[in-house]
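Trying the structure run again after the queue cleared.
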Amino acid sequence: MANFSKSQVPRFSVEVYQNEYLPEGGREVNAIVTVTSTGGGTSGGAPLRGAPGAVPGAAVVIMVDCSGSMEYPSAKMRAAREATAAAIDTLRDGVEFAVVAGTHQAAEVYPGGGRLAVADPRTRAQAKDALRRLTAGGGTAIGTWLRLADRLLAASMSDIRHGILLTDGRNEHESPEALRSALAAVTGRFTCDARGVGTDWEVKEVTGIASALLGTADIVADPARLAEDFTGMMENAMGKEVADVALRLWTPVGVEIAFVKQVAPTVGDLTARRTEAGPRAGDYPTGSWGDESRDYHVCVRVPEAGIGQEMLAARASLIIPAPDGGTPQVLSQGLIRAVWTDDMAASTSINPQVAHYTGQAELAQVIQQGLDARKLGDFGGATAKLGRAVQLAAFSGNEDTAKLLSKVVDVVDAATGTVRLKAKVAEADEMTLETRSTKTVRVKR
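Done. Tokens:
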């Protein structure tokens, strides 16, 4: 990773929202760390003009499912070709790219030879011509697609390395262990957005890939919407300007990290993804950034202390790690504090941001639990969990999730979470709710 001058890096800010007051003996400190990047995406990640050794700002590999099921109906394969062509048209000049056809093995479609092409009018036209020859046939082994994408992206000197993966079926031609092994091998090497088209794919497989590779996951139930979705994904990728940003948490002696979660725009647990970064410090990956803002819930446990005492519970910094393990580039930082008080009102008050995102995390969890219970025939458990989800969605103003829930349950009283399971639910509606269950709404400040 190259170091950036201040003029090249978007401006990052870190804001901490918390109730720092604890009762005597209190140990748990919760904070929402809001990270905002502004000024990125304006140059599109393009290299500085005239800079010696300048390299393209991004490299992208598009992985297209070409298994036999993509031919049923035939409109699905046609839509995939058109969507990939639309994504290629969205590439900036100078961006490196390749297209991979995925079946029970992975094959290079364009440019071939283990290379990446550099986007310009000529290579875009050649790539789109190559897409016309794509046909469906064979099985599905997504791990092989990811490994080929990794080999192609590894040849690039670009900082932003990104994949787009489309599948319409379950990963039936390799073991779950093989997919997990492939994900472990490529995690941290590139980011990846994953999409499931139609309704014959496995939600947890697609969302698991996107989560591991710090990308987005979604359903495109109607193949006719693929081109629009692919264009949006590529535009988002083209807006990324800084790669491999980490949230570094430093804690004093005696302080433990309970968990670290991204809570907006989606819920994702980063706790187990910590890498040690020196004495009492650890890095949590956040991926690539453009113009955007994200929220993270940090929970730490501090030693017990008496009334009137205070301490720095943690320091949260946004950093770009040095490639040689040297001093990282610090983009911004904020402080998480703990103050012990005998003021009952102060110590029992829940910070609005913490309360909001605690509810959003629970919302994602109970939706997953409710849908799993429904699939297992536990209709009482499903009703209870999905009723709680309706209540949380209504309370937090998450209107999009509330609409998705209303296609799975009949809402009797949203305020109390009283619902009835619908007798018949379209498979696409259930899969959409499951896939988008982790999407959150920002707290109104």
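The first strand starts at residue 11 and ends at 18. Worth checking whether this holds up in the mutant runs.
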